[in-house]
Model the fold of this input.
Amino acid sequence: MDRISAFDIGLDPMFRAERNGIVSIRSASQILFRHLYIEAYKGEPLAVRETLKLIATHERVRAKEFNRGVKDCYKTKVRPKISADPALQLLGIAVGEGYSLKIREWIVDLATERGSPLASRWEKFIYPADADEPEPYSLPRVPPRRKRLPEETRFKKGQSGNIHGRPSKIKLDYKLPFEDFLYDQVEISIQGELREISRAEALVHELNRRALGGDEDIARILRTSYAREIMDRWRRMEHIVFDMSIVRDDVEDPPVVDYMRSLHILNRRTVRHLLIQPWAVNAALQRMGAHRLSHEEQAVVLRSTSTPSKVYWPDWWEVFTK
Done:
């Protein structure tokens, strides 16, 4: 048989080996490497150095294959609903907000006249007409957001605009030398607990135990290997963690919202938006009399109104949809 290299005679399987009653044909290199692993597990310094060097080579190749680098730390954030509570209070339809929201009695009576069958069931959500009048509601003062300068939105000098880099398109679909042996799973006892780990991890664990037990030769080799591994991870920027937020919608409503939807005062056009029905806005505007809303308050009411084109806005109204 024509051979490309003289080493092929040591790489071709031609030796019969038996283990646990299973017969296999292995190459001379596989048998010698198994002997090397056994010597390393026993703490032979030269064997330890050679085996750790091979494991480190495997780790570097796999790190490049899986594009290890900056880590993404995913955190779930709840995106709050766009509440209609401010608009309900500005229009005089409700009092309070959130779980303390109560509906004024006049809008409940009007909804009953329109044919709602549930007006008499949920008295605990109705604000009585003879109750003390709360203080007038005013919008919270939010400081204007500063507009960012052009210099603040440009790419920084010396900093990549794509931190993660271009993902690798070529993935290894083959196994590295001796990978089957090194990463085969074995069972060992770690601190009294039986665990299943790879042979490479089992070797490193045994070497750690020997080094911490006072074997200076093994400790010296491990210090060098750990220092090299830490530097490799630092060069791949594995120490950098980016917080990536997974946003989900908060769709849980207070019970009073379900009551107002049953009265057809509110509707939900989208998951996040609760909108006030046009008939309720018309009724609230007619009851205002001489009271006027500011420009900001008009904008809040308009954003919380379902189908604003069906509302008869008064003459003093200044904010309209585009």
Summary: The mean pLDDT is 79. The longest strand covers residues 71-79. The radius of gyration is 36 Å.
